[in-house]
Amino acid sequence: MTTSSSRPTTTPDVITFDGNRFLVPAELIATSFDLAPADVPDLMRHGTITSRSETGVEEDAGRWRITFFYNGRTLRFTVDAQGDVLKRTLFDTPGRTA
Q: CA 30, CA 36: separation in Å to the nearest integer?
């Protein structure tokens, strides 16, 4: 998973998939975690923000869940094949730092 703070081709509210990885605008992550967008790439490189993705199956085929973990909080996006965010959830995950 990568962020797109330096990729002008993505729009701030659309997540794209390049065939190998998701490109998530840093603004989407930063807003939820109360961070500056410019800080997100470094936090991910250093493992302070971690992520995972899950591919939907059966009735969820064509959808993906992209989850970010930071400082005891979890941010989860459900996206469709066009990268539109269908659902955004933010919740506490005590005991998990990244």
A: 6
CA-to-CA distance for 64 and 80, rounded, in angstroms? 7
What residue type is 53 in one-letter code? S
Q: Which helix (H) or strand (E) holds 22?
A: strand 22-24
DSSP letter (8 states) at residue 20: S
Nearest to 13 by CA among 30, 36, 38: 30
**CA–CA gap between residue 67 and residue 89 (Å, rounded):** 9
Q: Would the pTM of this model clear 0.90, i.e. be above it?
A: no
Give 13-57 pLDDT, tens digit per residue. Answer: 679 888 778 899 999 999 999 999 999 999 999 999 999 999 999
Specify burial of residue 61 (Cβ count, 10 A radius: 0-12, 13-18, 19+): exposed
